[in-house]
Amino acid sequence: MSDLAAPHLLALTAYEPGKPEDELRRELGIDDVVKLASNENPYGPSPRAVEALRAGSLQLERYPDPRGHALREALAGHHGVTAEQLCLGNGSNELIDLICRVFGGRGDHAVFGHPSFPCYRIGSVAQELRFTAVPLRGDLRWNVDDLLDAVTPDTKLLFVSNPNNPTGSYIPKRELGRLLRSLPDRVLAVIDEAYVEYADAEDFAAATELRDARERLAILRTFSKAYGLAALRVGYVIGTAELVFDLNRLRAPFNVGTLGQVAAKAALGDQPHLRRSVEATVRERQRLGEALVATGLRIAPSQGNFVLVDVQRAGRAVYEDLLREGVIVRAMAAPLESWIRVTVGKPEENERFLHALERVLKGSRV
Amino acid sequence: MSDLAAPHLLALTAYEPGKPEDELRRELGIDDVVKLASNENPYGPSPRAVEALRAGSLQLERYPDPRGHALREALAGHHGVTAEQLCLGNGSNELIDLICRVFGGRGDHAVFGHPSFPCYRIGSVAQELRFTAVPLRGDLRWNVDDLLDAVTPDTKLLFVSNPNNPTGSYIPKRELGRLLRSLPDRVLAVIDEAYVEYADAEDFAAATELRDARERLAILRTFSKAYGLAALRVGYVIGTAELVFDLNRLRAPFNVGTLGQVAAKAALGDQPHLRRSVEATVRERQRLGEALVATGLRIAPSQGNFVLVDVQRAGRAVYEDLLREGVIVRAMAAPLESWIRVTVGKPEENERFLHALERVLKGSRV
């Protein structure tokens, strides 16, 4: 059968998600598992979202609203745009793929950072785009000139994760503005702001504040991180009405389920809950970082809800050892072989991780 | 912006779903709306599925199980296959697109019936496949020889909706076996059985009974129709482990949400509920068909949960008139301009439709 698959897909390394807790429980027979692997929000969604799902009238037998009317209207109000400027996706993951399919013609070129979210590369490979993965420099920060230098006359797409997964680094407001203004007109700039709610640096700005700087701009947001709704798969694009019109040519009409639409709208309406869980996470991010530095490890300063730690030996081995301690983190691929990424959990989860890491590092050689 | 979209997509007529009830309420200010447009199951899902969603421990902040372990194991038991032979999708809609992307290389050719489910054509266009839409003959039945005649040396995919949407017609067991055995080895036969639970003709057979007839076979099933879970977007492919492995190269890891996985597993476990709602629908299909014939209209004998009716004038106008009566059905494109498709609803919904249709037809000229 394999000889039937399109040849360019044979090279594709499928995205490897964080190990689900249940899987570890099954595999190792460990009951008490802490998952700090997928940058989920341990405080969960707004109780209003849970409430909305328990309302009796959800009509599970009916197809979802294909236009996501109520959620898009709520998002339009939240962002000060029109509903026509919003496109919903089955997580922002699906939207990255959709953007590659709609705007990436064959032979076109894409630019993105490395290391960054793997879906930009997967989407490009799937669409047979040529691409340049621009290495982040030694300090793991973005360099806007490096990105601009990678742009060729064939470049149609540029993806930036800001703050960046997995490094936690960001492009400051001035630099982001410069990037958006400097790109050639034909390039669609895709700014993936999955972690934007956790960014608190003074010189950070969401691309939503810089929409005047560029027409060809797609801003990606998600309900899977700070809004605590990863289970329900809701992401969205903010762009021009023309961009959204083009995405809708190929978007499947029922790509976002009813419960996702309902819960996301309710969660959006509870900004105080969002603020509280973000504040708790930012506090713990600081504390966790300081504790790691105090043990002599290097960390990347993070604007996300995760911390990248240089464990100064094979990160994969440390990851495996932590699994046996019941703690799931994420091992990193090249060039971060000596790093692991840990999600900022609740205080007790972070303690559990810190103690487990201490035991693991003591038991292993550098 | 539009000049950025890939040129082959500009020709794409996006799939037009049935009008959502809320939209009609908004547009016409009608409160009492009956939706018989999307072949949904009016009896809803098993109470066990609803129950499963109300269980407290769903952890909405966690990503779904990317491998869909529990649901795939349950499906494996149900179908007598291994979990490795099953691939879950965000509705079977996503899986049709995924099949086109994974197995349809550029320049390849696809074959499907016409009129049939529009997603085979959309998936082919999106992937720039050449295709042949094989017209169903005047009696709206499948003709296996017509399908086989359309196969060229470049054909890689053949899609059959069985029973067929929107005609309700089917390929009898003997003929389906002949088709599966006669196709050249390189062709992947995709048998879309979205409506299989409603088929009761003596000479009907699900492709699951004919898996020995062909290795390159993908059988599509969905929880959106008879299982009453359209809101949650769960479909699946049954195939060889090799086929599923190839689909997983490109399948997004979190394409099926947690609540969909949980509810589908619970619904699968309640076969008596499924049987009861299928029986009620099949009874009403018979009654509705007879009532339509009694008024002098022609219908296509249906094995699905819908009936295609020749209204002997512009179907689009009858559709619009029915909207004003608060009844949503589906108008058909060429060559079915004089037909409408009506979902078999509950007895009172079907009565409402019959009376509304009578009024509409009286008020309009042939």
General form of chain A: globular
- What is the beta-strand fraction of chain A? 15-25%
CATH superfamily of the largest domain in chain A: Type I PLP-dependent aspartate aminotransferase-like (Major domain)
Total of DSSP H or I helical runs spanning 4+ residues of chain A: 13
Average pLDDT, all residues of chain A: 94
The number of E-state strands of chain A comes to 13
Tell me what the CATH architecture of the largest domain in chain A is: 3-Layer(aba) Sandwich
Number of domains of chain A: 2
* Sequence of strands across the biggest β-sheet of chain A: 2-8-7-6-5-3-4
Fold and architecture overview:
The structure is a homodimer of 366-residue chains. In chain A, strand 3, helix 6 and strand 4 form a beta-alpha-beta unit. In chain A, helix 3 packs antiparallel against helix 10, helix 5 packs parallel to helix 6 and helix 11 packs parallel to helix 13. Chain A has 366 residues and is of the alpha/beta class. In chain A, the strands form three sheets. A seven-stranded mixed beta sheet of chain A has the order 2-8-7-6-5-3-4, sandwiched between helices. In chain A, strands 9-10-13-12 form a four-stranded antiparallel beta sheet. The first copy, chain A, has two domains: 121 residues, Aspartate Aminotransferase, domain 1; 223 residues, 3-Layer(aba) Sandwich (Aspartate Aminotransferase, domain 2). The first copy, chain A, contains 13 helices and 13 strands. Helix content of chain A is 39%, strand content 16%. The model of chain A has no long low-confidence stretch (mean pLDDT 94). The first copy, chain A, is globular and about 55 Å long. At the A-B interface, helix 1, helix 2, helix 3, helix 5 and helix 9 of A face helix 1, helix 2, helix 3, helix 5 and helix 9 of B.
